[in-house]
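Collaborator request, handled under Task 6.
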Amino acid sequence: MKKAGRRCRRRLTAFGGKYEKLRKLQASVLYTQPRESLRGVSDPSGPGRLAAHGAYHPAAALAAGAGMSKVLREIRAGRLGYAVLYTAPSIADAPKARGERCRATSEARQKINLRKSWQQLEVTLFANFCRDDFLVTLTYDPSHLPADRAAAVGRLRKFLARVRAARRKRGQEILYIYVTEDKHGDGRVHHHLVVNGTGRDLDELRALWPDGFVYAQNLRPREFGYLARYLTKEAREYGKQIAKKTWVPSRNLKRPEQPRAETVPDLMTLTLPPNADPLESSGGEVRVGEYGTYSYIKYLLRDPEDYRLPREISTDPEEDLTRWHGEGRRAKMAQGLNF
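Structure tokens returned to the collaborator:
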């Protein structure tokens, strides 16, 4: 038994030495290489990069006892950014520490999973659309009212094909997201369409939609969060059973960027880039027990285009999107809001 105990201790000591060498090597590679992936470390002035504060010299970090147990995850969609920083579990952790760090990891990942339809729509809008684009509402007059929802979707697709053909002749493409609604208000079917602008769109859209009225308003990127909630209001209120998809994108849209998770120093913290406004935040580190921590920020980079005139200005009445903070239809009715 004594020999077995000595062998076990020798093995544990050898494993601990190998683990410590690996950790120091990882720290040296991370600190000494200029990496664009560490937002704000190699180039703090870069556009849209996170300001990450910590110990960046390997000798100083190790002397201060800085480990490498934190993980940084990000999502970038145009001007919109998400970031979470959390303590990840390690094979060397005691059971209690491992359990608490697993909980911190789970809570942090939930912040950027984007499982809700409006969250996925919001990042898609930021990744693809800008001030020159439009939110278009297509309605039906009584003489052109389709028989059912499926027939309405078929007419919309034919309309999009006509727009695509007209733009192809000019060497331009069409980017779009559409939503079909038939539940709220008087229950009459209609479509909402987010479409890219080319500078000569309003008259063309009205000419290519003979079934009713066309209302268009210029997009305001700072309101994309409200717009995403507005376009998914029926799905939240009545459930996804009303359609196979909550919203339908064109195939040529860009996807949000999700860099691979990075192992970073324990002393690192998250702060906003110098040219960004906070949208959501954990308000600093959130502790999960004694060993687990995570922090979270969602931010929007400032852009002068928020204050410029679009290339083509619509004079149609505009929907007040700022009312849509995620409440359902009944909450809006309780407030006496007409939508």
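The cover message to the collaborator said: "The first helix runs from residue 2 to 32. The two ends are 78 Å apart (CA to CA). Please let us know whether this matches your experimental observations."
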